[in-house]
Design brief:
The chain is mainly beta. It folds into two domains: about 45 residues, no CATH class; about 375 residues, Neuraminidase (6 Propeller). Helices cover about 10% and strands about 35% of the residues. The strands form nine sheets. It has a five-stranded antiparallel beta sheet with strand order 2-27-26-25-24, with no helix packed on it. Strands 5-4-3-29 form a four-stranded antiparallel beta sheet, with no helix packed on it. The radius of gyration is 24 Å and the shape is globular. The protein starts with a helix and ends with a strand.
Length: about 450
Amino acid sequence: MSEKLPIIGFVVSIAVLATGYGVVAGRNDWFPNPQVSLATDTVRDLGKYWKNDIGLEPTRHLVPARVPGEADRFVVPRPDEVTPGYTLIAGLSRDQDQSPFVVTMYDTSGAEVHRWPIDYAKADPEGLNPLNTMLHGMEVLEDGSLVLSFDAGDRLVRFDACGNVVWATPGPFHHIIGRDVPNGLIGWRDLEIVHVDIETGEATKIVDIENDMMNAGIGQQGILGVRTHIQGDTAPLKYENDAFHANDVEPLRPEMADAFPQFAVGDLLISLRELNLVAVVDRESGEFKWWQSGPWLKQHDPDFEPDGTITVFDNNTGTNQSRILRIDPKTRVTEVLFAGNDEIPFYTAERGKHQLLPSGNILITEPQHGRVFEVNGRGELVWERDSGWDENRNLIVTEARHLPLDFFDTTIPQCATTAATKEPGRAAEIETAALAPRSAAQMVRLRRDGASFSESP
């Protein structure tokens, strides 16, 4: 036994050292912790989404329907209060043989008037399977083209009215893409905000989080310095994976500048989800001119409003009740414009968009239930639409956008021999590649004034 003691001691020492190293490696993300974590996540991901990844069913993009058993619901309890104009809805395509994603435009009556087939592979042939990306950000241009960003993808893409690629700019663009001032586009490319030329797609950095915002203004490192490890007294902070989750940026436009005298034209309204932070940032220096963490929780889509307030899509994650909030940045007084309730359920733990409409109504995108709806100023349902996959599941929709009837330069977008006109309420009369016919299972179900009837879109 005495001869084995050194061997036992050696084994125990190795075990103790290995355990100690494992603790330190986990804390500091040293080898092999990243590799083990990646392998574990990959196995778990493949087990959950293998049907998606081999092309059997787009399970990464399917969500539970609010009303099971009724695919493709379109309900209009208050037809006289529908805001005039067009509604664009972006998300996964039901017809996967035509395109992985689709943006569909509906008129005031709910009839489909145009469809953009969106195939990420056309812009990034060597990249990910399109179903392993997510169409997320959307900007509509007056000539009928769209600029789209793809979460997990590596391209920002402009598609024409028929779904052809106009330009594709490399980079990990994600979440929202919008209009910049005085012209162009603006969006997030990883942790930097960039200006994008509409005609060429060329992207130019404006400011970023780690180099500009972190070092601008007294205390901004404290505002942004969360989920970090301090490595020594003088070493820089090491940020955990996705410590900020930047999910929106919007410039203050000239027509709203008088309502926000504390800010300047071009100042940037940003949202950092993991910090529950909404802030207005100087686009030159990165300094915060105004900021607030909460009362929103895991929020998306803050918007400047013409009355000098800011509205926020409050996911309110973990509460089963999302909200649309309005805050006055001068007084910090916050009010709830709309919240989910038993009559009109509204909750999405992830993603989300809202738009205050000229009528005073609110257009709301509820991605995790594949649903878009409009409510009036009294919080009553005007209409709602499900993006149905089958009787129990919907397709994720990532954005709905309302456009005025005179938005487009000439007629509404057309492709090949499409006969759609700008006349409200008139759908395309000739089916084309961009307007493929639907099957009987994809009929829209309408309810008006309590009466039910079926009608082809």
